Amino acid sequence: MPGAAATAFPRTSALDSPSAAPAWSARELHSPEHRQEALEAARELIPRIELGAMAYDIEWRLGPQPDWSSVLAFVYRDEAGRTGYAPFFKQERPLEFRLGEIKYASFGIERFTLNGPPVLPEGSRTELTTVVLSLLDGLYRRLGPNGSIHFEGLPIDSVVYELILGNPAVAKGFISVPLGEPFEHQFARLPDTYEEYLGQLGSRSRQSVQYSERKLAKDMDGKVRAVCFESVDAVERFLADGSAVSRNTYQWNLLGLGLRDTSELRGQLKMAAERGWLRSYILYCREQPVAFMLGYQYAGCYYYTDVGYEPGYADWSVGSVLQLKVIQDLYARDGRPGIFDFSTGYGSHNARFANFSRREANVLLLPRSLKNRAIASAFLLNERSSAKATALMQRLGLKARIKKWVRRIASSR
Q1: Which residues of 121-134 are buried (b: 16+ CB within 10 A; e: fewer)?
Q2: pLDDT digits over 299-325, tens only?
Q3: Which domains, from first to last, does the chain contain?
Q4: What's the rounded Cα separation, in Å, for the pair 36 and 17?
Q5: Residues 284-302: tens digit of each pLDDT
């Protein structure tokens, strides 16, 4: 593939002349010189990113024991002084075939993953088209036999999304594989006061969550408190109490997910605490941990990355109560974030507290070959079949009942 890239991925006329080619430089971070250039670009351009900035911080993503060889960063600088940045993380991550939440097959592929869109220079739509095509060409040249490009959380109104799903030059070099349907990524823009924020919520949502907060306090004899864990010394307690909650959830028992006390997560949390980013919370009722939120505050935005609650406390809506208390605490602190990022898992809980959203999609680009065409066709057929089966169960009123039953069984293990 690398040797065939020059002909397999056609260039636009703007890229035919080296002097006119957009100025992307690929930087392999195992090289100290390349690493320094990529890190300087990140520090320069991350403040320009309003949504999802944390995903572009290479040092944060790699953690306290970084594998620099796992990152291929592209840095853009042209003669006009315009800049851009796109850090792709190499992952051995299979393409999974699922029916609902059950995996039954997979194909091993190496992904160059970018979370969000590349940071592009200022320019017209036409200029940015040329810039993006050049970036894709640079990536194509570095793909191995099982390589792919993975855009995760890509805004559907971006020039990149438009190109990878409809540009003839891209279609000649790649097979575009949508990974699921586009989804709403929920956010809350936090105004000056907590009262203003509450006023932006729907009246039913506001009344419901405030009622849950009062009811929980009454039923627990006032012994309800939300604790923020933000220091290095607090990490062990957060992991112990948060894991105790998480292991009772269906995410832990059914999906192998949840808050797990691992050395990797411990190191990541301590790193965040050392940099002043850690803002993770646990809700206690009568001193028992009943809900947790793993989160960070970075570059003016709060990111919640994992949540869970004790199934036995579901009737008190402890997840929603904790959410409200977290926002109250953020307002009570100096340096309140301007945006609350609810992560990419859509749900009624997120929508209740959010006040705006961005429509995003996950897309995989496979270099054109007979093998990849067969894999893509089988995957898309599976997706259509799964969607039809899900729609049928929903029409019959079975989906919600089966989902509830499976989660109840998983949570009781």
Answers
A1: bebeeebbbbbbbb
A2: 999 999 989 899 889 899 999 999 999
A3: 2-184+359-407 (3.40.630), 191-337 (3.40.630.30)
A4: 29
A5: 999 999 999 999 999 999 9
